[in-house]
Amino acid sequence: MFPEFGFLIYVVGAFILSGVIVAISGKRSLLLGYIALFVTGGIVALIDFYQWGYSYGHDLDPKAAIQVPGLSYQPPLIGHKKLLNFDAFSYPDTGAWIAIAVVAIFIIVWFIEWKRSKPSPKQFAKRSFAFSQLAFISCFFVSSCNPAPEEIQIGKDACAECKMTIADRRFGGEIITRKGKVYKFDDAHCIAAFLEREAVELADIHKTLFVNYEAPHEFISVKDAEFVISSSFKSPMAGNAAAFAGKKAAERKSSEIDGSKVTNWSTLYNILVK
């Protein structure tokens, strides 16, 4: 099911052949180009891996046993992630560490050769400018591919579901699409209703975020949020649920409120849409 495996052997072969050519030529400029090609190949591979993970976690079978609107099941690109009751891990294995070591050696060799050449101040300035331009373009590309949340403006922004002007951000949240469109909400109840009526295709959702009740200018990912439900909160649309960064924080707050309950988003969603 992974077409990349069909042509990956040719890609690896091309890298080996190119490396031999660079070694025989002994040219520093070719080595620099080879390093850039190697790093670019790694970035492309990671992007491809991310897209496979995104598709795996978002494009669910309509008959899937477990589906919670607003909650994706995307494995981590690098690191650890909790997916409902499962722990997903993704770390470099032997082959990846070898590739990283090889690139590090190439960079060290290029740097030693570059030091020997002793470029003039004018040449150094040109290279520095070129590298700064490349860094700027790379940063722009990365930031444009990673849609970010927006600050909720009290008294200005309106809830995407109930259309009321947001007056209290503590119970709010945001849904961000893959194209970067941000939907703002004043209550967990509104987010649940928005997802229930599929105002946005679930496959198009990049992130679902909730405001951290203890730090109203911070957002928590839906997969990391734990909620405290209590009528004493009196949230704008009577969802009466506040999000906290982790179970310990939620339990600590719940211990201060009689009759409150700690839960996760999948359970809270089912409560709110009944």
Describe this structure in words.
The protein is α+β, with helices and mostly antiparallel strands and 274 residues long. The chain folds into two domains: 4-59 and 92-144, no CATH class; 169-272, no CATH class. It has seven helices and nine strands. The chain has helices at residues 4-25, 28-58, 94-117, 121-144, 188-196, 247-254, 265-272, and strands spanning 79-83, 86-90, 173-177, 182-185, 205-212, 215-221, 225-229, 241-245, 261-263. The strands form three sheets. The chain has a four-stranded antiparallel β-sheet with strand order 4-3-5-6. A three-stranded antiparallel β-sheet has the order 8-7-9. Strands 1-2 form a two-stranded antiparallel ribbon. Strand 1 (79-83) and strand 2 (86-90) form a beta hairpin. Helix 1 (4-25) packs antiparallel against helix 2 (28-58) and helix 2 runs antiparallel to helix 3 (94-117). The chain is elongated. 21% of the residues are buried. The mean pLDDT is 86.
Q: Outline of this structure?
A:
This protein is of the alpha+beta class.
How far apart the termini lie comes to 39 Å
Task: Determine the fraction of residues in helical runs and give it as a percent range.
Answer: 40-55%
Strand order of the largest sheet: 4-3-5-6
How would you characterize the largest beta sheet?
4 strands, antiparallel
- List the domain count as a whole number: 2
- The mean pLDDT is 86
Gyration radius, rounded = 25 Å
Strand content: 15-25%
Number of strands: 9
Structural class, by secondary structure, is: alpha+beta
Which parts are unreliable, with pLDDT below 50 for 5 consecutive residues or more?
Answer: none
SSE ordering: HHEEHHEEHEEEEHEH
The rough form would be described as elongated
Say what oligomer this is: single chain
Put simply, the count of helices is 7
